[in-house]
């Protein structure tokens, strides 16, 4: 009986995190943009095939020319499905599949903006090779990985309670909210919010405990 109680406790502790989700995985299979935006809307499109799993896998395509305004800077933003309380919804990290279909390697950063205008950008960029292969990138929402670039008084931890928007951008030399003027063709797919790892371990432990063979107690 004791082990059943312990197992149920594990499940009950984890229940709030399982019950909420900020947004479904943005897999683009419905033909939409999942409310990702760009200053020049025609340069952001849903492509019906060629995602990470190949034929028939939809993905989000962003093309920039590197010179015009708007339309020259590789940036895409989402203030709809990705706004909200990341603490209540247990968003620990944001992951995505990206591919660089352009001619030059790109320096990818991830950014987050709070409701008070606070903007934080990853301090280090990830180099995305111009090889047209899909890469799985994960951005942990760890304050140590971000630099505040503009506005507001809320801390990074406070911003996670009230996120207004997130964005991916190409910016090489330093953290900043705007992208570089760069010609590019970038693919995005399977943009997902990841739960805190301990939650899954806790649930797994609870299920494993409940699933253990019961000893006969005659
Ligand atoms: Ca897809």
How many E-type strands? 11
Question: Structural class, from secondary structure content?
Answer: alpha+beta
Helical run tally: 3
Present as ligands are:
calcium ion
Which bin fits the share of residues in helices? 10-25%
CATH architecture: Sandwich
By oligomeric state, this entry counts as single chain
* Distance from first to last alpha carbon: 14 Å
CATH H-level homologous superfamily name = Galactose-binding domain-like
Shape: globular
The low-pLDDT segments are 1-19, 200-218
Number of domains: 1
Q: What is the C-level CATH assignment?
A: Mainly Beta
- Residue-averaged pLDDT: 86
Q: Enter the CATH topology name.
A: Jelly Rolls
Strand proportion: 25-35%
Task: Give the helices and strands as they follow along the chain.
Answer: HEEEEEEEEEHEEH
Biggest beta sheet attributes: 6 strands, antiparallel
Radius of gyration: 20 Å
SSE topology:
Blueprint: H1 2-19, E1 44-47, E2 59-65, E3 75-78, E4 93-100, E5 106-114, E6 119-122, E7 126-128, E8 134-140, E9 146-150, H2 156-159, E10 163-170, E11 183-194, H3 197-211
Antiparallel strand pairs: 1-2, 2-11, 3-10, 4-8, 4-11, 5-6, 5-7, 5-10, 6-9
Bound molecules: calcium ion.
